[in-house]
Amino acid sequence: MDMEQVFCTERISFVKITEQLLSDYLIMINDYENVNRFTSKSGAHMTEEDEIAWVKKKLDNKAPAFSMIEKKTGEFIGNIELVGAGDSVKELGIAITAGKQDMGYGTEAIPAIVKYGFKEYGLQKIVLKAKPENARAIHVYKKCGFREYDRNGENVFMEIS
Q1: Taking the C-alpha atoms of 119, 120, 121 and 123 in order, what is their torsion angle to the nearest 10 degrees?
Q2: Which CATH number goes with the domain that contains 150?
Q3: Which range of residues forms the domain containing residue 148?
Q4: Distance from first CA to last CA of the chain, Å, rounded?
Q5: Helix pair angle (135-143, 105-121), 10° resolution
Q6: Where are the beta strands (DSSP E) in the chain?
């Protein structure tokens, strides 16, 4: 596969999202137990058409949305993006496919996208929301410098600036 690397870390190549990875995207987002139940699309079954539309929208808008590829193997790790309409604030979204969880990729990827967002987009703040039951993700976000600023029954709200 020929994919355009935008930036990288020690173990991860961040490439533009691509239809070449649709099957990987579908496996990840439709994995309710390990991924989907923690996303904004919780409970929704995503089709190939849904994912094609998502890729096209992100590419058309030149959105900072990237697939993470393991440098050593070339395998798909997950997707990470900065979303939202604000010029100085974006929301972080990350999903890591089940087979690549608990390997430190989130801890490596999050500071990289934060640095990229601040440098390339001139962001002043990056926010995120996590499901309260996703303790593993909340731990990683805190480890990466995010601080909790609010919570309700559905979400924990965090930020970094």
Answers
A1: -10
A2: 3.40.630.30
A3: 5-160
A4: 36
A5: 50
A6: 5-8, 12-16, 65-70, 76-83, 89-96, 125-130, 147-151, 156-160
The mean-pLDDT minimum among 40-44, 81-85, 137-141 falls in 40-44
Count of domains forming the chain: 1
How far is 13 from 10, CA to CA, in rounded Å?
8
Cα–Cα distance, 111 to 46 (Å, whole number):
28
The pair of three-digit structure tokens given for residue 15, joined into one six-digit string = 């490439």
Cβ(68)–Cβ(80) under 8 Å? yes
Find out whether 36 and 23 touch, Cβ atoms under 8 Å. no
Each residue's pLDDT tens digit, 112-121: 999 999 999 9
Task: Look up residue 75 and give its two tokens.
Answer: 């395998």
